[in-house]
Amino acid sequence: MILVLDFGSQTSQLIARKVRGLGVYSQIIPFSTPIDEIRKLNPTGIIFSGGPASVSDDGSPRIDPAVLELGVPILGICYGMQLMVHMLGGEVRGQNSSEYGPAILHPRKSDEPLLDGIADNSKVWMSHNDAAVRLPDEWLTLAGTDSCEQAMVRHTSRPLMGVQFHPEVHHSVCGPQLLKNFVFHVCKAAADWKLEDFIEKTCDDIRALLAGHPGSRIVCATSGGVDSTVLATLLHKAAGDRFLPVFVDNGVLRMDEAESVRKNFREKLGIELTFADASDHFLDLLQGVTEPENKRRIIGREFVNVFLKELSEKDFLAQGTLYPDVIESVNVKGPSSKIKTHHNRVPEILALMEQGRVVEPLKELFKDEVRELGAKLGIPHEMLWRQPFPGPGLAVRILGEVTRKRLDILRQADKIIVEEIKAAGLYEKCWQSFGVLLPVKAVGVMGDARTYADVIAVRAVESVDAMTADFAHLPWEVLGKISSRIINEVRGVNRVVYDVSSKPPATIEWE
């Protein structure tokens, strides 16, 4: 295992994922994790992440000095490197100007395991204001850049080393090789992280759990999205008839979605879903509601009420929580800071967790690992590459009140958008592509008559993880066909616009 100690970096997940991509298991923990817990994890190596703080600031993140005495190799990245330099007697100081963006790396030592296969003039990515201006005793410089003398450093006798740049980001061309060097050449780690082993172990754990609780089942909500589809397939493999997948129709799904998901599960996965049709009830609760957060709150609250009716007192609840969800719920700044509440942590579910009745089989995996897992479980490609769909559904794509009439308009328009995106071969290139019904009407002319009708906004974005996103540069002919079809086929719409904002500053969804 390679441990990543997180100092509040936005790219800690990238570090762990890059290490896992080498076939070595990696886990992220807060920098403040007690030394005894770190020892129990028995890491082969440790990586200190970057972070937004300055080592000279009062209250900046610090580690227990005993971490540096564990005897395992440690690689510090940006703040992580500066922290080691500072703690061991060197000097870190703010520079006259910050350094953000590309830099060229110039190795200064040969025969260094960390530099194996890294050529002179390799491009790296910098993002810092502080820099090490004097190294501690027994440290030496391995590489520098034109503006950063100490771009790569190490201790002469202890397995401590650091880089000022960010090898985990895509823009550091030599980053993958450097991480590979650290993991294999320095840490001597074994590439034994395999999803096949994960499947076998998870199935064994589920079967052992059920064997110890006669008469119990494992119940999970299944939406047809990637995470819940993979979870359901894994649980069906492990538990068979003692697995109960529940599909809740909340009334704000896309056109024919409920039947399509049920059919796909039945015919392609051999799984029969328990269907709870609460659509009318949800729509009644949404009547007159226009504020986005109220929509989300009502739908989320009622979904739990409907779903938990299928759970008996003996049953276990399975959730599709992923590793990024777990990380977001962990506070790297200490107990005084407010921790982000995950959407799977409502009071009823927290109560079940206290009873030991919640299982989260995917909580060690990243999104792309979940898709890889699904492929190994035999899930068809088109089900694994379905675009994300928000839990509140079309309710947050209808700006203003959600009515049956407005739902019908958006469903028709959205169906056309998806059809044309797929026909153009662009569906999997987009993170999401959908329609939004705006709370305005526009003047138009149709059949020589004046119209005053609804406006549909088309939204299509490209992203890797939804943390940031760029609007998709859809071809004009595709946009033209989408617009023409919506205006001609959807009664009540006379205008189509395209959203060309990125995230940030906008969000992907409009509400």
Brief descriptors of the model:
23% strand, nine-stranded mixed β-sheet, 15 helices, alpha/beta, 511 residues, five-stranded parallel β-sheet
Overall pLDDT metric: 90
CA radius of gyration: 26 Å
The main pleated sheet reads as: 9 strands, mixed
Number of strands: 18
**Low-confidence runs (pLDDT<50, min 5 residues)?**
331-343
**Please, what is the oligomeric state?**
single chain
Based on CA inertia axes, which overall geometry fits?
Answer: globular
Beta-strand content:
15-25%
Structural class: alpha/beta
Terminal Cα span: 40 Å
Written account of the structure:
Strand 7 and strand 8 form a beta hairpin. The chain is globular, with a radius of gyration of 26 Å. The chain has a nine-stranded mixed sheet with strand order 2-1-3-4-9-8-7-5-6, with helices on both faces. It has 511 residues and is of the alpha/beta class. The two termini are 40 Å apart. Helix 5 crosses helix 6.
Write the layout of secondary structure elements.
Blueprint: E1 2-6, H1 12-20, E2 26-30, H2 35-41, E3 45-48, E4 74-77, H3 79-87, E5 91-107, E6 122-134, E7 139-144, E8 152-155, E9 160-163, H4 175-186, H5 195-211, E10 218-221, H6 226-239, E11 243-249, H7 257-269, E12 274-277, H8 279-286, H9 292-308, E13 316-318, H10 323-328, H11 347-354, E14 358-359, H12 367-376, H13 381-384, H14 404-423, E15 432-446, E16 449-462, E17 470-471, H15 476-489, E18 493-498
Helix pairs in contact: 5-6, 6-12, 14-15
State the gist of this model.
The protein has about 500 residues and is an alpha/beta fold. The protein has 15 helices and 18 strands. The radius of gyration is 26 Å and the shape is globular.
